[in-house]
Design goal:
The chain is an all-alpha fold. It is 78% helix and 0% strand.
Length: 211
């Protein structure tokens, strides 16, 4: 039997190009961030968390489901913390294989989220007590969603992602609609349009990546 040399160079230019193509595809798969693992945890957090807020604190103070007062917010924050942990692990794992400009962009963008919400938390904590209790939750929610939508559109400019920009613009539109509709309705709109939209975005990007 004639031995096979796996390290032998390609026999032709066509084989060389095919080898380069396969290696590039393998590297892209290694660095690719699974959109389902990124978007679905956040979508589920918003879908469930804001959904519970709507059921407990509906329009005009209506209670659709008599849940404990603390449950909706605790559920929302707990699910968001879980989503944040998932995102952090995924980003850190991917970041080990990326250096240079892309690594700096990702790091700077991550810190932008942290500092933005640190500013939001400080500002809201100062001014929210001046509002009626029924409006405090709406203020917190609409400002937070507004920051998220702006950061999505900023991220779209960094990574040239039309999908991120469209979703950021969509969040802005439904956030405005929710504010105009009032407390209670805002939670329902963000639950379905925001949380459901994030899950749908993850599924669509995953399906597109498999083509």
């Amino acid at each position: 039997m004639t031995p096979v040399d796996d390290d032998a160079p390609p026999a032709s230019a066509a084989e060389s190009l095919e080898l380069i193509r396969r290696e590039q595809a393998a590297a892209a798969r290694t660095l690719e961030l699974n959109p389902l693992l990124y978007y679905v945890p956040w979508g589920a957090a918003w879908l469930i968390g804001f959904g519970l807020l709507f059921l407990r604190y509906g329009p005009d103070g209506r209670v659709f489901v008599d849940l404990p007062d603390w449950l909706p917010l605790v559920s929302l924050f707990a699910l968001m913390a879980l989503a944040m942990a998932t995102t952090t692990v995924l980003t850190a794992t991917r970041g080990r294989a990326v250096q240079g400009r892309s690594s700096w962009q990702g790091t700077a963008y991550g810190f932008t989220w942290f500092f933005s919400f640190a500013g939001v938390g400080t500002t809201m904590s100062h001014f929210a007590p001046l509002l009626p209790e029924s409006e405090r939750g709406l203020l917190w929610a609409c400002v937070s969603v507004g920051v998220v939508s702006a950061l999505y559109m900023a991220g779209a400019a960094i990574w040239m992602s039309r999908d991120m920009f469209i979703f950021g613009a969509w969040l802005t539109v439904i956030n405005i609609a929710g504010v105009l509709a009032g407390a209670g309705w805002h939670s329902l709109i963000i639950s379905i349009g925001g949380g459901g939209g994030l899950c749908l975005l993850g599924v669509l990007l995953r399906l597109r990546g498999r083509r």
